[in-house]
Amino acid sequence: APKHTDGTMPKTFYVSKGGADGANNGTKDNPYLTIGFAEDQAVDGRGDMIVVGTGIYAERVNVEKRNLTIVGACSYPGMVQITGAASPNANHATLHVGDGYLRGFRAFNLELDAQGLVPALWLESSDAGAGNATTLSNDYRFYLQNIRIQSSTPDVGVLLVGATLGRMDDFYVGGARIGLAITGSAENNPDSLEFNNWKFKDNVDADIATVTGHQTTG
Predict the structure, then answer these.
(1) Is residue 214 within 8 Å of 58, Cβ to Cβ?
(2) Tens digit of pLDDT for each residue in 80-96?
(3) Cα-flanking dihedrals φ and ψ of residue 35, to 5°?
């Protein structure tokens, strides 16, 4: 099994609309251009952080690193927008944390606009047992705060699949068919989740719903 760290100290990578992928090294003075490129440079399990400058980022972010933090540089989430991107398959999440990478994930100060993608935010895990978790504290495996979902009627705003031991604070979810959808299985059912200060507006069918399946792909 791969180690959770390469033995080096956690790094902070900076992303800016004025940055450059490849030519720059991701420092504050020489930031990258895209969040996805910064995620590629992060080391699995090391505890790296990606700081995203103000602007609109037309990309899909697929997190495949454990203990990763993504934070918008401005406390108002609308100042850092991730809007998704065109894809041959429209059923791609704007921000997706894949199975096996939710442990230690943190995100702050972001707006996610699905623009018809499914969903805006997708968090999934297949090892619901708390004993398998690398927790942020004694209570939480992952933590998200100050997230705004402002979408053009996607199927789902936030999709939780088998997610456990998580805390999600200060969310605004507007314009989705279902604001928050929760799904899982008998062996891997979402559990031990804490939600604080959620606001829902203009969701078409339901603000919160449990669903038996989902049509999203990675």
Answers:
(1) no
(2) 999 987 665 555 789 99
(3) -70, -40
Which residue do the tokens 């504290």 mark? 137
Residue 13 φ/ψ, nearest 5 degrees: -110, 140
Task: Report residue 53 as tokens.
Answer: 């400058």
- pTM of the shown model: 0.90
**Whole-angstrom distance, CA of residue 197 vs CA of residue 210:** 20
What φ, ψ does residue 151 adopt, rounded to 5°? -125, 160
Tokens 């992928």 sit on residue:
21
Q: At 203, which amino acid appears?
A: N
190-208: burial string, b at 16+ Cβ within 10 Å, e else: beebeeeebebeebeeebe
Residue of 215, 184, 17 whose CA lies nearest to 116:
215
Alpha-carbon distance of 125 to 166, in angstroms, equals 11
Contact 187/90 with Cβ under 8 angstroms? Answer: no
**Under 8 Å between Cβ of 214 and 191:** no
pLDDT digits 0-9 by tens, 138-162: 578 899 999 999 877 668 899 999 8
